[in-house]
Amino acid sequence: MVLPEMFTERMEKLLGSEYNAFISSLNEEKTSGLRINTLKLDMAYASQLPFKLDKILWADEGFYYSEDSRPGQHPLHDAGAYYIQEPSAMAVASLLEPGEGELVCDLCAAPGGKSTHIAAKLKGTGLLVSNEISAQRARILSQNIERLGICNAIVCNETPERLAASFPQYFDKILVDAPCSGEGMFRKDMAAIKEWSPENVKMCAMRQKLILGCADAMLKPGGIIVYSTCTFAPAEDEEMLIWFLRQYEGYRAEAWQHSRVEGFGTGQESFVPESLGKLSEREKEALACAIRLWPHKIQGEGHFAVRLRKPGTYGINVKSVSVSNKVKHYYASKKELKELEVFLGAIFIKTDISDYAERLIFFGDNLFLVPQFFKPELNINIIRAGLHIAVRKKGRFEPAHALCRAARPEDVKQYQDCDYDTILKFLHGEVINCNSGFKGWVLIGYNGLGLGWGKAQDGTVKNHYPKGLRRLKI
Q1: Best label site of 99, 254, 470, 472, fewest CB within 10 Å?
Q2: Which uninterrupted H or E stretch holds 409?
């Protein structure tokens, strides 16, 4: 691996005697991890996965796996049983510690590893707003939210400024996993090396300041911001933390329960340039609370993270927020609700929709069950507005793919659990056999996890797995 000279010079100066071990680690094989999706599985299921797994100490749901296991190619990945995530990155949502019923924002969320981790900790309660400024990356984020069966998330494609204008002092907790120079990903992503430059570090730092300002505007008094990067650059880590504390008075850093894990480092006073002047006791305390993950000290890539509490009294005071997609939307009428209840009644065992009828909203021909505390009125760009339930086609309903990801086998009247070879055929888009007594919509699954819809007749299932998700070969 050939690293930029200005990068190595800086790191040698910062790390001193640890420099050689650090450089050697960048030439070693990267570590790989997966995180169990506890919205679908309990942790006991981990022992049943067909891969050799080793526990990650700082993430209760996280495990290392060997590259030859290829869990991303297994049908359980398609089913949302787990999320492939770099081990160090799992520390960030754990540091945020989302609690049930809280209103949480992931401000720079794609591709979705940290958002899906947050959602698992919310356990289907509260509200998660996952935002991504890049339209292409926002679509990937939305797909991962869907794959893992998350029902209480709004996926936005917006600038931080426009989002801040729509959610003033709204959230209990905000994650700013900031776009950065990506130095911590050098051994994982060769493109990060090619794109690196001192100018890019400076540009990232400027952008991070803007994003953090928006996060402060959206956070309730007493709320929590977790700021994180995957870079070693002090300009984006320690210096950014000191800048924020001076710009937004009253914030205090908080220590983390896993901060004493062997190999975890802290923010370094020595990394802060003299040009910033003498550090206050509050700033020194914040650096000591921050965590630094180094690839020569742990099994993982590089990360920096710090948990900051805003001044004021904290309490979960739930209020609705009104935002809207740019697509025309309207609430389902009484007639449409009756038609929907009949439609769902043919698929599900229990179909009383009275408890959530007021949250059923059409965006064009797509019907969504929007999360609590959310009303579509203002003007921001929403890609996913909660749980996509159904699509209206020629005066009738068809179940949305997202609905099968949120449904459990015990919820539906007709469920077909497939063996490994059959589910691969289904994922390829082929017709498969089913129970001869089935007729109409069937939930097709593997190992008790729903994967897609099929329409049964005479012992066979017409495949309705989305064409864009189908495997090109078995």
Answers
A1: 472
A2: none
Q: What confidence tens digit (pLDDT) does each residue in 136-172 have?
A: 999 999 999 999 999 999 999 999 999 999 999 999 9
Q: What is the pLDDT of residues 121-139, one digit of tens each?
A: 999 999 999 999 999 999 9
Residues serving a catalytic function are: 230
Angle between the 135-147 and 113-122 helix axes, to the nearest 10 degrees? 40
Unique residue bearing structure tokens 């049930």: 100
Q: Can you give the residue range of the structural domain that contains 375?
A: 320-406
Residue 206: strand, helix, or coil: helix
Residues 183 and 279 in one domain: yes
**267 plus 346 within the same structural domain:** no
First vs last Cα of the chain: how many Å apart? 35
Distances (CA, A) of 198 to 7, 205, 244: 8, 11, 21
User: Is 197 contained in some domain?
Assistant: yes
* H/E stretch holding 49: none
Whether 35 is in a domain gets the answer: no
| Same domain? 291 vs 302 | yes
Whether residues 301 and 196 share a domain: the answer is yes
**13 in the Ramachandran plot: left (φ > 0), alpha (ψ -120 to 50) or beta?**
alpha
Query: Of 32, 140, 148, which is closest to residue 81 (Cα–Cα)?
Result: 148
**ω into 111 cis (within 30 of 0):** yes
In a domain, 9, yes or no: no
In a domain, 165, yes or no: yes
